[in-house]
Design goal:
Length: 254
């Protein structure tokens, strides 16, 4: 049985003061929901403070990115060794980083290798762009992304994958649960090819892209979908708690 997994990606939102208020608004509600991994990914600058606020709760913490070197002359960058003291997870290869910061599968692969070495659990993001979907290339694109990202990785550990169709992110146009389930099934088969049945069956694979409290249930009802990476709706405390609550209930079969 895979434990469902819901992560909130706050992106470049919230000052430290706002982050503290947001944690305060959702902490109690999230903490009491059992049977689901709950992860908050605030901006770097708030990680230490949020780690302090979450101490002693069941809520986990993740970063939104990191550099692929452990240390050195990389002005403005943050290394896995700095993160591992503060958080358990790190989002890697998000489409916004691929789009605005030129991250390639090769860079994502380097980041994955160093994150795993440092003891962080990567949340690997991938997904097709609209023109790739319209050209019928979704399968080919996501297969190549997952193979590229996992290249040379002997043991992916507890790695989580987030399938996020680029055209669904921040647009209010979520993919359909059925279509996403099929693509996530394909990703799981690709992981089986690379790492065997046991690893693939144990790996959490999420859907991401315009998830809200109104559409989460459709995704969680799918057998291959283990959770969600939530952007915009994770900045609304009540809605995020609602998303986590529904997810836990559906996977428990309530
Ligand atoms: P969204 O973002 O929920 O705002 O579409 C999802 C993501 O980018 O992870």
């Amino acid at each position: 049985m895979r434990i469902p997994f819901i992560a909130g990606n706050w992106k470049m939102n919230t000052t430290s003061a706002e982050a503290s208020v947001l944690v305060g608004e959702m902490q109690e509600g999230l903490d009491r929901i059992e049977g689901v991994d709950k992860v908050l990914c605030p901006p770097f600058i708030s990680l230490a403070m949020v780690a302090e606020l979450l101490r002693g709760t069941s809520i986990k913490l993740g970063a939104q990115n990191m550099h692929f070197e452990e240390k050195g002359a990389y002005t403005g960058e943050v290394s896995p060794l700095m993160l591992v003291d503060l958080c358990q997870f790190v989002i890697l290869g998000h489409s916004e980083r691929r789009q605005y910061s030129g991250e390639t599968d090769q860079i994502v692969n380097r980041k994955l290798l160093v994150a795993l070495k440092a003891g962080l659990i990567p949340i690997l993001c991938l997904g097709e762009r609209i023109e790739e979907k319209e050209a019928g290339r979704t399968e080919e694109v996501v297969t190549s992304q997952v193979k590229g990202a996992l290249d040379g990785i002997k043991s992916p550990g507890e790695l989580v994958i987030a399938y996020e169709p680029v055209w669904a992110i921040g647009t209010g146009m979520a993919a359909t649960p059925l279509e996403s389930n099929a693509t996530i099934g394909l990703l799981r088969r690709t992981v089986t090819e690379l790492h065997g049945e046991e690893v693939a069956q144990g790996m959490r694979i999420l859907y991401g892209g315009s998830v809200t409290a109104s559409n989460i249930s459709g995704f969680m009802e799918q057998s291959e979908i283990d959770g969600a990476l939530v952007g915009g709706a994770s900045l609304k405390a009540q809605e995020f708690v609602d998303i986590v609550e529904q997810s836990a209930a559906i996977k428990k079969g309530e």
